[in-house]
Design a protein that fits this description.
The structure holds two protein chains of two kinds.
Chain A: H1 5-8, H2 12-33, E1 34-38, E2 53-57, H3 60-63, E3 71-75, E4 82-89, E5 94-98, E6 101-104, E7 107-108, E8 121-126, E9 132-135, E10 149-151, E11 156-159
Antiparallel strand pairs in A: 1-2, 3-4, 3-11, 4-9, 5-6, 5-8, 6-7, 9-10
Chain B: H1 2-21, H2 25-40, H3 49-57, E1 63-70, E2 78-79, H4 81-94, E3 96-109, E4 115-127, E5 133-147, E6 150-159
Parallel strand pairs in B: 1-6
Antiparallel strand pairs in B: 1-2, 3-4, 4-5, 5-6
Helix pairs in contact in B: 3-4
The chains are: A alpha+beta, B alpha+beta.
Amino acid sequence: MNLPRWLAGKNPRRTAVRAAILIAAAYLVFGYILLPVRGAGVSMRPTIDSGDLIFINRLTYRFREPRRGDVVAVRMAGRSVVYVKRLVALPGERLKIDAGALSVNGEWINEPYARKRDDWWLGEATLGADEYFVVGDNRTMPMHLHDMGTVSRARLIGPLAF
Amino acid sequence: MQRLVLIVVGASGIWFGYHWLFPNDDAQIRGVLEEIAEAVGGSAAQEGEVSRLARAASARNQLDPQITVDAGPPFNRMRGRDAVIGTIARLNGSIRDLEVKFTDVQITVGRDRSSAKAYLTAEAHYRDRGGARGLEARELDLTLRRLNGDWVVSDVALVRTLEPPTPR
């Protein structure tokens, strides 16, 4: 069986090897290293908009702990659908939100990504030993329509790669 | 070589045919979930009232007559198949182009094969008032049981991915 030249190239054997390497590389990169995520919704505006394609680095948290300010993917039942949020408070920290501004351990946090703020209010709470607080960058939307809250370490897939 | 290809194709055909004719518990439960997703969403753009209600009612065979649905606060716990079907019909009527998918489905069948658990993410794709596409996703824990030989969903509980912080 002869494949057409546009498909097999000048040297079909070399083309087959290249194709196999490409498939293996794509399988490794997208199966184990980078998680592609298509943005849906407005909660991470202006950082991530609906329809934006982003990549989450699944290896980062094997080498370092999550940090405040990371944009993270939070897994649900699996990794097909994930929340993408900003990690703003770490285990053991005290946080509160007043007039849309975030305070951690009594200090107001500078959040250049949250340009405008609606009148959000969240009473002071201290996070547990395995609780990370995540929230979207879009503080202009009504608070009751915005999904935010604490997640365990096991749910954090990794930070935004690009 | 040709004989080997024929053997592989034949064996694959027999394997797929057997599993199609005699699906295992996992496949049966996935089938039940697909039927429910189709009944809740999957509405055609110009669907009439009667076909909308008929589609919602098609979930009857997949739901336990005593089903309970706990969507968490502020919603009340829902009990009974008729109440659930009524809610499905209302959802279909009030949300434009609703399409429901169950992803990352993890099924655990009990040892006696009379009960099972399904943990999954439910995705609801819809069109908002402005015509833009929207997506809501929630984690669900489902309990199923055998009723007259068929799997039915007997309990649905919302799993909160993001928990509100405890004031302290």
